[in-house]
Every structure is written in structure tokens, then in C-alpha cells.
Amino acid sequence: MSVNDKPISLLAKDSCSELARLTGDWFLKKLPNVRIHLLKGEISKNVFHDIIAVKTGAKVYLIDPTVWQFFPHQKRILIKITSCLDTALHHAAKVYGGKWVLSEKLTKDICRRERARWREIVLSNLSNVRRKKT
Length: 134
Hints:
Blueprint: E1 2-3, E2 6-7, H1 8-11, H2 16-30, E3 35-44, E4 47-56, E5 59-63, E6 78-82, H3 85-96, E7 99-106, H4 108-131
Antiparallel strand pairs: 1-2, 3-4, 3-7, 4-5, 5-6
């Protein structure tokens, strides 16, 4: 997949933390009773990745808004539905490799204060990609 001749894997690069948080923020707005956890993986030395776990009732939805960095032909951001956060962490390690931990819990208050900064970082990263040749 590509956007304006740039592969989506390149466009998603370096923005996984911010896009995971912005996606979590969106879920918190749409579904106020969910709990959002940021999962951080150290996939290899100096290679980190962030995804979210959306917990609602007895289900945990493992979501990667920048999945294309690792799986360029993936058609959806839903990675797996599990029954608990421990299983979600285990599955993240199985899919991406490396060591995964619960990094933080997102709340409406955090998201409201930080949203503009996350967007600025994503836009800056996109601007940098646009200037580079692929």
C-alpha cells in the first residue's frame, strides 16, 4: 500500500507511540467505558514498537495503528482478540518478537493534555518522510 507514491510502511515509521496514543484517545472518546493500555515492545536492540490493548468487558483487542512498519501488506490494524492483558502481551511477543511490557494506561485526562503534542510529532515525522526520497 502507498499514499502519494510513499509506502505506508515508511509513512508509519517513527510515529508508533503517538499514533497508538491518538488511537487510544479515539477509543476513549467513542467508548468511554473501555480501558486503554499502551504495550511497548523491545523487538531487537534499539528497535522499539508501541501498540494498544483495548479492554472492554472480558475481551482485550490488540491493535497496532502502524502495523505496516512490520507487515506492509496487512489489511487491518486489529492483531488479535484475547481474554486478558497477559495473553495480549504474549501474543505481541509471538507476532513481533522481542520482549513486551505494559507501558502505561491511557486516560481521558492524559489524552486531553497531550493530544496536540502527539499530533505535532506525527505531522513532523510525515514532513520528514515527504522530503526524503524512497
